Structures are given as C-alpha cells and as structure tokens.
C-alpha cells in the first residue's frame, strides 16, 4: 500500500471553526479546521442519514451533523453518545506553504 | 508495601456503598486503600425496593446496586457478613467477627444505618433477642425472605405501624393473598408526612384495596403459643392473626459508636464536616445526627456522602453539609405520594388545597412569601417534578397556583400513572421512535440524569415534547437514585453558568465573540452544541458591537436558508403580511423554473417556498428574486400571518392586513432565543389563528386590539394570554416590541414564548410590560428600536459573501495530482 498526498489548497479556503467538503476523485471528503488550529478529515456524509458533515458545527475534536445533531469524534471517528456507526478519518496536515495536505492510502 | 492511607467504612448499606462510589468517582483509589464491613453477607442493595420484593414485584436479585464482583473490580476489600463489634480509637483498629478480623484505619466512616424500633410488647419474645414464631421486623433482605416464607402458610397478618414502611409491608402481604390489618397508634396514617385530610383520603384508598385499618389502637401484647395467634390491645379488645410484622419506625444504630465513646444523642453527633467527636472518625446516613436532626430518607444521605467524599479526597477540602430540605416522591401501597417541606402551614402561610376523595386525590401547597414551603400530593403526583424544582430552588410561584397543582396536564405529558401502566413497546418519543422499554432499560443501565438519558436513547431530542414523560420514566424507574444534573441550569451545556451569571460575566469581561467566551469561561474548550446559543445571546447583548464569528452559526444562519434532508436548501422570500401581486408571483415562478426548484410550496406562514436549491445557487436565486429574506430558517422573528381584515371581509373590524405588514416590516429578522411566529386577526373569528401564535393581535369591536402572547400550535398547543388591549396600530407595535425584547433578554436559548410566558407568569408580565413596575419599559423600547435599526437583509451577502467559500457546495483539490510520496503524517496538528 502506498500513500499519496493531495493538495487541497490554502488553509484559508476553510474558515476558522468550520468545515468544507472536497471532491477528491470519486470521493467526497470533509475537512475541518478548529479555532485552535487543528485540521481533521473525515468521510463527508453522516452514517445516519447522509447529512453533509462539513456543514455541521465544529467544536473541540467533534462535529455535529446539521441534519439530526449526531455527534462524532474527529480524531477517532467514533460516534459520541449514540451507536449510529463511526466515521472514516484520514490523515491531514498543513505543509510549509500553508496548504492543506490530505494523505490517501491506495 | 502500600503508601496509601487506609479508609475503613463500617456499613455497606445505601450510605456506606454510595460513599465509596463517590470517593472512587473522585479518583480516591489512588489515595486510599478502601476496606468495607457489611453486616449482611451480600453486596449492596436498594433497601427502598424491599417492599417490592415483599410484594413479589421484584426478585431479590433485581434490587442489588453493587454485587460482590463490583467491590473486587474496584479494588475495595469487603468483609461481607462480618459484624464489627469494637473500635479501638487509640490504636485506630476496627475489630470484627469475634476478633478474627482486625483492620487498621487512618480514616474511619461509620455508616451503620438504623434498626427497626420494636415497642414493648408482652410475649413477643421467647428468648433474649429471639422473636416468637410468626413475629417479624421488616428491615433487611433476610427479614423479607423470612416474611415471604411464613406468609405462605398464613391467612391473616397484622402490621404494627401505619407509617410509610408499615403500609408498604401491608401492601406486600395483600399482594401475597393475605387478609391484612394495619394497627396504628396515632389518629391518622403517616402522621409524620401527611396532614389529617390526606391521612383520611389515604385510609379510604387503602380500604378500597381490602386493607383493614385500625387507628388509635395501642397494642400491648401478643397472643398465642408457641406461635402468634393474635394481638391484645390496651382497651382489652383482641385481633386474630397468624403473623405479625412490626414496622413501627426506625432508630439510628449507634451501639458501636456509644461503646467507642463517641458523642451520641439520638444519632451519632456530627458537624458540618460530617466528623464525629473523634477527628479521624466520620458518620453518614441514618445513624448520623446533624444539627439536631436525623434523616430517614435517601436524598439527604446522598448530600452527606457527597460532602464527605469531597473532603476525604480533597476535591473540595472545605465542603460543608448544611442540612437537607426533606422531600420525597414514592408510592405508598401503590398510591402515588410526594411530600416536601412543612406538613402544615403556620398562621401567616397561604394554604392551597384540592381534594377529590372519590379518586383518592389530595393536593396541598403551603406558600410562604410567594415561595413553596411545603406540599403534599396524594393519589396523583404528576405535578411533583415541577413542585420539587420550585421547592428545591426556592423559585417564585406563578400567581395562578392551580397551574402548579395540575402542571403536567397543561404541558401535554401523559402523566405518571398512565406511563407506569404502558407496555414496554409503547412509543414515548414520536420523533425518534424510542419506546418506553428502551428508556427504562437505559435508566437501569445507569442513566441517572435527564440529559444523559436523552443523549443515550435520543428520546426527547427531536421536538422535545416528550421530555416530561422521559423525566417521569426516569423518576419511576430510578426513584431516589435520580441525580441532579447541574448542566440543566446552564444557559448552554458547554459553559457552566446560568443565564444571569453568564450575561454578567460577558458584560464584565467585555466578551464580544463566541470564541472569547469559551476562552474566558470554559477553559478554551469549544463545545459545538453551545455555539449557536452563545451567538444568539451575544448578539442580543452587544447588538452592532457583536463580533460575529460565522462558525458559531448553525448552517442555516451561515447561508440564510433552511437545510433539507438531501443537503439542498429551501428559499423563502419575505412576502409582507402574505400579500403578493401578479408581478411578484410571475417573478417567483420564473426563478423557480430557472433554478429547477424541486418543489414550490405554499407555507403555513402565507409565503412561497422554493425547495431543493443547492447551496452554491443560493446567491443567484436571491439576486433573481430581488426580494428580502423571509428568515424561514432562523431563530428570529419569522412572519406575521394575516387575514383579509377590513378591506374585503364583511366581518372584519380591524385592518389586520395593514397591521400585519407593519409588524413584519418592523420586526423582520429580529433575533430571539427561538423562532417567533406572529399573526393578526381582523375579528374574533380568528381566521389567522392569532391566539395560538407566539405573539398575536386580534381586532375587537370599537377599534381596539387584543395582544396575545405565549400561544402555540406546534409540538405544544396553548392559547396565548392577553397581555393588554390597545387602541391603535402604533400601540400594538409598541407592546409587541416590548414583549419581544424582554423575551430576547430573559428567555433561555430555545425556550419558545409559550414556555417563557408560563414560566414568568402573565400577571408578572403585565406588571412589567404594561404597568412598568420595574421601570424598564423605556429601556426595552429603546433596545428593541436599536435592534430594528440594526437590521440588514442577510441576502445581500449574495454580493458580499462573509468568506470566499461561504456558498461552496464542494471544493476541488488545487492540483489533484499526486505530490511526492510522504511518510505518514499525524492526523491532526
């Protein structure tokens, strides 16, 4: 298995404390930026009813789906306070130019 | 060799075991080696439920709180069935089981509880401490077992004592098919908790169940040899019975403390620090006497063990116990009962009573200085949760006292009695499809607060209408083990402050943004679900000076449209007063076609909804419409529904259409704790349903308008209350604005006006908003005017987006091409 890094562009594309959906090939991936400067990436759709997680409210390490309020841990992908499945998470960081870099295994 | 301190707890009942749980929860295992002694050879069980075991409703195994494995799993040494017979205070050693067990201590806690009180009865004993065959007390699991076995061959039982425990024992024996006589020395049943009238009604209810009640009967001896055959009374009469259960009260179990030389009066004397006269020895629970009082209920005991756990673990080394207000909610022989505070009022108190003997219902409130000083609810305790809250927090009561006595029926809950009777598969939460069985299982699985229970089961997390029922199920299932969740008092869960405290802190520290509130008041931890509530509050406090961080907004408020199940949005332009024109309709139709709206729908608020618009098309849709936002997505003023009023309607007595347009033009977009839906009606026929709106105006003959507030016709249905009757449109706008501003300032986040109006009370609102009792009307008028002046149509962000990607559906990677291969980076930084 190899990894490839995908440049998602400048961090400023994601406003502080929010998330955005990215089309990465055939995949949709949600990337979140907290006010403390952490960046997280997860699958884009909520496992409950496919809500767009990038439109959710972001807190410390957690996102709340905008449709029905299901909450997930952004690091582990675990559901918080419910048993509605977990999120796939992806490694993501910021390179020296300030671009968001997503790592995909293939 | 352990360097930990040694903590020894004598007593493994509800107090002792709970204390150890609380200590462990505070990380006490790192500090203490914990050793416990229990008289009974079991783990810890819920003594309150013994009566259910006696009645056959519970198996003995069902009432265990901590089985033996729990102690092992938590590193607690339990000597179960080992009786402690001495404390050597000088050597700090506890002696148990005929000196076969010795345990040294640094800290000793005495939690020996209480013993059954046995009044002097001739021939009750056959030997020192040995009852005659057929004579029992009712205090422990072993007592209960023995009673159940003996009852198999008995036909008639006498229960000595008409207090709570006696009646519970009597109910259990009735359930087992016995003919049961309750013999009580006093003039009415449960005289400690009930007044005379309540005692009388309870007696009738119990007699209806087949119990025989004998009041003012002094029992002086037992008849029969070798086993019980009857009772002899002081007045010379007798009663035949095959068995006798003595349940005449409890006495603190203090012999161990007396022998050890501790100060003992009625109970073991403790100070506010729960310490006895020996600084290394503490006492908690029924054996302890604090400020002259001993307690026989479980709630005060929880308070005591929390304080002691805080002190012992140094979590709060200065924690003090200042006594407990006594309240309890329970079933007496199957009859609902809640009691709190004083049983009878003194001369100056206001007593409110309601009595319905045929149904066995009696309710009494004792009101002192506008606050609840005591209450009795017998036969129907559905109002107990509200009353307990009012009592515990010293909350001011609504002027209409009957609202308190019948609180639940107003809020649409189904009530305790019928909930208890429902089958497990009955659906409680109709939004998320949660059954009663699921809720009850979660409570049994350890959910002890409403919040945790709702989060776990998702019941009550939809429209919220069933929360009352979830609370009732929690109380029915967990009884006194229900825990107080401090976060229910917080304005938002992520910042531990009530609304007034939060507002004060925000003003004092000049916090203008949501992130600054988290930084200053929540240790920098941002809680997602708390963000919109804080944003709403800050906007109300600071107005134009509010530092609007967009991430604190729910998605609807970021893009000024309402998110739909497929991730698209609905667009509802404002149509003032529901009055449109052919040109406007044509334009809306063109926009709907151009942007392929998936559905065009007339809303309940007399507007037109274009559904299925993708996020990135929103700006163009708004531009093409050329109409302002209808705010159909926000926690704000939504719309004002109107009827045709005087212009065409042959009944209209007021120009409701014109007034509705004026209202909507003035208050459009006004942020509030929850949405506000308004209506104006041109006559009392109320075609626009103004009386069930958050705020409504109804025209009446004579050119006047009735202003209604706090109406609802959604998850809850409530007719609004009349705030005032005024003469002109200007006056309508003035009083409506004043009310809305007060609601903006004082309601909790997501509290609709119907909750707010009930909570504050319409009489109080009239005094504040009409009579200007607090002298704030001019300020309220000015503040709402400032908010109106600050209004900007949010759809103008079509051309001035707040962020470059505000309306992006999905972004593309900037290159899409693989970069140089990397070693795995960490997931976050």
Write a concise keyword list for the protein shown above.
heterodimer; A: 106 residues; mainly beta; 4-stranded antiparallel beta sheet; 11 strands; 0% helix; globular; B: 829 residues; alpha/beta; 5-stranded parallel beta sheet; 27 helices; elongated; disordered C terminus
Explain how this protein is built:
The complex is a heterodimer of chains A (about 110) and B (about 850). Chain A has strands at about 5-10, 20-25, 25-35, 40-45, 55-60, 60-65, 70-75, 80, 90, 90-95, 100-105. Chain A is mainly β and about 110 residues long. Chain B is of the alpha/beta class. Mean pLDDT of chain B is about 90; it is low at about 410-415 and about 815-829. Helix content of chain B is about 30%, strand content about 20%. In chain B, helix 1 (about 15-25) links the parallel strand 1 and strand 2 (about 30-40). Classes of the chains: A mainly beta (about 110), B alpha/beta (about 850).
Class by SSE composition of chain B: alpha/beta
Radius of gyration of chain A: 13 Å
- Give the neighbour order of strands across the main sheet of chain A: 2-3-4-9
Q: Tell me the helix content of chain A.
A: under 10%
Distance between the termini of chain A: 6 Å
Question: How many H/I helical runs of chain A?
Answer: 0
Poorly predicted runs of chain B are: 408-415, 816-829
Measured by DSSP, the beta-strand proportion of chain A falls in over 45%
As an assembly, this protein is heterodimer
Q: Quick one: how many beta strands of chain A?
A: 11
State the helical fraction of chain B: 25-40%
The averaged pLDDT of chain A comes out at 92
């Amino acid at each position: 298995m190899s990894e490839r890094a995908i440049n998602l562009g400048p961090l400023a594309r994601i406003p502080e404390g929010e998330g955005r959906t990215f089309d990465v090939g055939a995949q949709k991936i949600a990337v979140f930026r907290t006010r403390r400067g952490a960046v997280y990436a997860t699958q884009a759709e909520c496992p409950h009813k496919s809500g767009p997680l990038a439109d959710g409210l972001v807190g410390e390490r957690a996102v709340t789906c905008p449709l029905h309020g299901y909450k997930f841990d952004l690091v582990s992908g675990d559901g918080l306070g419910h048993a509605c499945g977990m999120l796939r998470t992806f490694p993501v960081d910021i390179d020296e130019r300030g671009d968001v870099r997503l790592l995909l295994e293939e | 060799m352990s360097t930990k301190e040694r903590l020894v707890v004598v007593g493994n009942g509800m107090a002792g075991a709970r204390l150890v749980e609380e200590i462990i929860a505070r990380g006490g295992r790192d500090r203490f080696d914990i050793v416990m002694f229990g008289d009974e050879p079991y783990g810890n069980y819920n003594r309150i439920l013994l009566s259910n075991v006696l009645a056959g409703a519970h198996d003995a195994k069902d009432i265990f709180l901590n089985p033996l494995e729990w102690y092992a799993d938590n590193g607690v040494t339990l000597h179960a069935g080992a009786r402690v017979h001495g404390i050597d205070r000088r050597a700090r050693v506890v002696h148990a089981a005929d000196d076969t067990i010795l345990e040294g201590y640094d800290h000793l806690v005495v939690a020996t509880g209480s013993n059954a009180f046995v009044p002097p009865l001739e021939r009750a004993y056959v030997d020192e401490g040995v009852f005659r065959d057929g004579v029992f007390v009712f205090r422990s699991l072993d007592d209960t077992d023995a009673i159940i076995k003996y009852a198999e061959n008995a036909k008639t039982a006498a229960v000595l004592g008409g207090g709570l425990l006696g009646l519970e024992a009597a109910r259990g024996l009735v359930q087992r098919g016995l003919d049961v006589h309750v013999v009580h020395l006093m003039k009415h049943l449960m005289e400690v908790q009930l007044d005379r009238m309540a005692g009388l009604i309870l007696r009738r209810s119990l007699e209806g169940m087949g119990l025989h009640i004998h009041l003012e009967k002094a029992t002086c001896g037992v008849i029969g040899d070798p086993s019980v055959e009857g009772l002899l009374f002081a007045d010379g009469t007798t009663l035949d019975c095959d068995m006798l259960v003595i349940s005449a009260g409890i006495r603190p179990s203090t012999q161990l403390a007396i022998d050890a030389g501790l100060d003992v009066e009625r109970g073991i004397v403790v100070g506010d620090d729960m310490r006895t006269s020996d600084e290394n020895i503490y006492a908690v629970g029924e054996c302890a006497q604090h400020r002259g009082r001993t307690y026989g209920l479980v709630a005060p005991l929880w308070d005591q063990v929390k304080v002691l756990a805080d002190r012992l673990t140094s979590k709060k080394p200065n924690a003090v116990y200042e006594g407990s207000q006594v309240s309890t909610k329970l079933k007496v022989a199957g009859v609902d009962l809640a009691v709190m505070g004083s049983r009878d009022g003194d001369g100056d108190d206001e007593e409110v009573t309601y009595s319905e003997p045929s149904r066995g219902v009696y309710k009494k409130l004792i009101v002192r200085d506008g606050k609840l000083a005591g209450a009795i609810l017998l036969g129907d305790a559905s109002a107990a949760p509200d009353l307990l809250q009012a009592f515990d927090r010293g909350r001011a009561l609504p002027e209409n006292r009957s609202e308190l006595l019948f609180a639940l029926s107003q809020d649409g809950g189904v009530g305790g009695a019928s909930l208890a009777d429902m089958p497990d598969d009955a659906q409680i939460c109709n939004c998320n499809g949660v059954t009663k069985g699921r809720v009850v299982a979660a409570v049994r699985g350890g959910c002890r607060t409403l919040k945790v229970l709702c989060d776990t089961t998702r019941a009550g997390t939809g429209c919220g209408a069933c929360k009352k029922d979830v609370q009732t199920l929690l109380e029915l299932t967990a009884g006194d083990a229900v825990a107080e969740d401090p976060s229910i008092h917080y304005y938002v869960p992520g910042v531990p402050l009530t609304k007034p405290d939060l507002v004060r802190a925000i003003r004092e520290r000049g916090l203008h943004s949501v992130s600054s509130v988290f930084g200053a008041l929540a240790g920098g931890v941002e809680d997602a679900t708390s963000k919109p509530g804080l944003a709403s509050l800050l906007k109300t406090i600071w107005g134009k000076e509010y530092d609007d961080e967009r991430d604190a907004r729910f998605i609807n408020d970021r893009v000024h449209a309402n998110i739909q199940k497929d991730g698209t949005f609905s667009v509802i332009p404002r149509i003032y007063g529901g009055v449109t024109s052919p040109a406007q309709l044509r334009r809306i139709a063109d926009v709907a076609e151009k942007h392929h709206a998936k559905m065009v729908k007339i809303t309940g608020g007399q507007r037109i909804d274009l559904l299925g618009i993708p996020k990135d098309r929103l700006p163009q849709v708004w531009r093409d419409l050329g109409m302002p936002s209808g705010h159909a997505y926000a926690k704000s003023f939504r719309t004002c529904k109107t009827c045709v009023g005087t212009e065409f309607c042959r009944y209209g007595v007021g120009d409701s259409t014109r007034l509705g347009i004026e209202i909507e033009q003035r208050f459009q977009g006004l942020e509030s704790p929850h949405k506000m839906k308004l209506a104006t009606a041109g006559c009392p026929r109320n075609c626009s349903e103004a009386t069930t709106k958050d705020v409504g105006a109804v025209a009446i003959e004579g050119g006047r308008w009735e202003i209604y507030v706090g109406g609802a016709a959604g998850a809850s249905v409530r007719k609004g209350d009349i705030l005032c009757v005024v003469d002109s449109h200007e006056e309508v706008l003035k009083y409506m604005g004043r009310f809305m501003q007060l609601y903006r300032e004082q309601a909790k986040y997501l509290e609709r006006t119907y909750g707010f109006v009930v909570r504050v009370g319409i009489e109080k609102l009239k005094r504040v908003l009409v009579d200007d009792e607090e002298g704030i009307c001019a300020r309220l008028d000015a503040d709402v005017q400032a908010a109106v002046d600050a209004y900007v149509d949010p759809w103008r962000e079509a051309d001035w987006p707040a962020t470059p990607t505000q309306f992006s559906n999905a972004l593309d990677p900037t290159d899409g091409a693989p970069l140089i291969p990397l070693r795995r980076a960490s997931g976050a930084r």
